[in-house]
């Protein structure tokens, strides 16, 4: 089925985006990314450890930008200024590549997004020519505002980052999806495969996850499960589910042509 | 000699050093990094003609695993 995901004019065949944090080593990271079939992978931007382990393999050796679309994020930033600064460095690091994930957090205890700072950072980044995929609260007004600013995708949380609590407010997600002209991705909160399928059945264009795979007992197997869940959810969305009919029992088998009921005596 | 801040650490280096030589001293040559110099992005094309000055602040970053 030819059903590409288009972000900032670029076409992707996978609707599962994955993070690269929390894996036991780079080999497992790469294996999980490949089992997920992900084309877009998020990375964080951090200071180098000066003087430590020179010659050590780096993440970009394992996930070369020639093969994967790297999505640098601003995880850990609590102000628009820090987020913008981080992504300017990321663009330099990745030779001018403009696609980025903006997230500005508001509270270290729950990693909930700070929307005023997120909006401020988004405005600056869009002006500077970045293609901004933006992590946001599941508030349809904020999501619309981010789209109006010029973000190329809006990425509401399904539940709090790293919680694995699943899709807690499907109605809000539906409001965002129904109002959006840019791709909507669920980012954060997915815990297991059915959560990813539900997000896609709601009409999300894609799902972004990290902990659900990296914190599974077998990350590579969970990555594969997520790949199938996203595909299944997408196909179910396109196919269109049957209407829910409480108290209107209707058998799938013919009701005529029944053999004669046995009569006793 | 001069003192510059590299990723927040005071570091003693010769003033005549270029940024490219700084990367060699730090054993980061050939690594994919990006550099911020006194708050501004320093493009790779400027590594050879930018020399260290007293009190310079450098941030040298890489990509790491993240979600």
Automatic annotation (TrEMBL), chain A:
Q: What catalytic activity does the UniProt entry give for this protein?
A: [ThiS sulfur-carrier protein]-C-terminal-Gly-aminoethanethioate + 2-iminoacetate + 1-deoxy-D-xylulose 5-phosphate = [ThiS sulfur-carrier protein]-C-terminal Gly-Gly + 2-[(2R,5Z)-2-carboxy-4-methylthiazol-5(2H)-ylidene]ethyl phosphate + 2 H2O + H(+)
Q: What is its main location?
A: cytoplasm
> What GO MF annotations does this protein's record show?
thiazole synthase activity
Give the CC-aspect GO terms. cytoplasm
For this UniProt record, the keywords arranged alphabetically read as follows:
Cytoplasm, Schiff base, Thiamine biosynthesis, Transferase
Q: Where is this gene product found? A: Cytoplasm
Which top EC class applies here? transferase
Location of the Thiazole synthase ThiG domain: 7-253
Enzyme Commission number(s) from the entry? 2.8.1.10
Transferase found in the keyword field: yes
- Mind telling me which InterPro entries this protein's record contains? Aldolase_TIM, Thiazole_synthase_ThiG, ThiG
Q: In which pathway does it act?
A: Cofactor biosynthesis; thiamine diphosphate biosynthesis
Is Glycoprotein tagged as a keyword? no
Binding annotation for 1-deoxy-D-xylulose 5-phosphate: 162, 188-189, 210-211
Matches recorded under Pfam families: ThiG
Which residues are annotated as active site? 101 (schiff-base intermediate with dxp)
The GO annotation for biological process reads: thiamine diphosphate biosynthetic process
The family note in this entry says:
Belongs to the ThiG family.
What PANTHER family does the database record attribute to this sequence? THIAZOLE SYNTHASE
Subunit-structure text: Homotetramer. Forms heterodimers with either ThiH or ThiS.
According to its UniProt entry, the function of this protein is described as: Catalyzes the rearrangement of 1-deoxy-D-xylulose 5-phosphate (DXP) to produce the thiazole phosphate moiety of thiamine. Sulfur is provided by the thiocarboxylate moiety of the carrier protein ThiS. In vitro, sulfur can be provided by H(2)S.
Q: Which HAMAP family match?
A: ThiG
Name the chain's protein.
Answer: Thiazole synthase
UniProtKB/TrEMBL annotation, chain B:
Organism source for this protein? Pseudogulbenkiania subflava DSM 22618
- NCBIfam families per UniProt: thiS
InterPro entries in the record: Beta-grasp_dom_sf, Mopterin_synth/thiamin_S_b, Thi_S, ThiS/MoaD-like
Q: Where are the transmembrane segments?
A: none
Protein name as annotated: Sulfur carrier protein ThiS
Top-level lineage group: Bacteria
């Amino acid at each position: 089925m030819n059903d590409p995901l288009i972000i900032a004019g670029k076409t992707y065949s996978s609707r599962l985006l994955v993070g690269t944090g929390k894996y036991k080593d780079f080999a497992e990271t790469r294996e999980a990314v490949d089992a997920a079939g992900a084309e877009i992978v998020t990375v964080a931007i951090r200071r180098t450890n000066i003087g430590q382990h020179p010659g050590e393999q780096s993440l970009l050796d394992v996930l070369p930008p020639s093969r994967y679309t790297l999505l640098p994020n601003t995880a850990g930033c609590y102000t628009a200024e820090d987020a913008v600064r981080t992504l300017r460095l990321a663009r330099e690091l990745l030779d001018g590549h403009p696609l980025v994930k903006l997230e500005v957090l508001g509270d270290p205890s729950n990693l909930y997004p700070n929307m005023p700072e997120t909006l401020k950072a988004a405005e600056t980044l869009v002006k500077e020519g970045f293609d901004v995929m933006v992590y946001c609260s599941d508030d349809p007004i904020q999501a619309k505002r981010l789209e109006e600013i010029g973000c190329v995708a809006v990425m509401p949380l399904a539940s709090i980052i790293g919680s694995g609590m699943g899709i807690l407010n499907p109605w809000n997600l539906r409001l965002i999806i129904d109002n959006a002209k840019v791709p909507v991705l669920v980012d954060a909160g997915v815990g297991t495969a059915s959560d990813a399928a539900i997000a896609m059945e709601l009409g999300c264009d894609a799902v972004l996850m990290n902990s659900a795979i990296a914190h599974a007992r077998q990350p590579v197997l969970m990555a594969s499960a997520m790949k199938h869940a996203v595909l299944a959810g997408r196909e179910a969305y396109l196919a269109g589910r049957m209407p829910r009919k409480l108290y209107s029992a209707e058998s799938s088998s013919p009701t005529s042509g029944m053999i004669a009921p046995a009569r006793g005596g | 000699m001069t003192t510059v801040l590299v990723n927040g650490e005071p570091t003693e280096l010769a003033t005549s050093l270029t940024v490219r030589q700084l990367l060699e001293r730090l054993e980061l040559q050939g690594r994919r990094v990006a550099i911020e110099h006194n708050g501004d992005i320093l493009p790779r094309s400027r590594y050879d003609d930018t020399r260290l000055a007293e009190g310079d602040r450098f941030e040298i970053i890489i990509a790491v695993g993240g979600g």
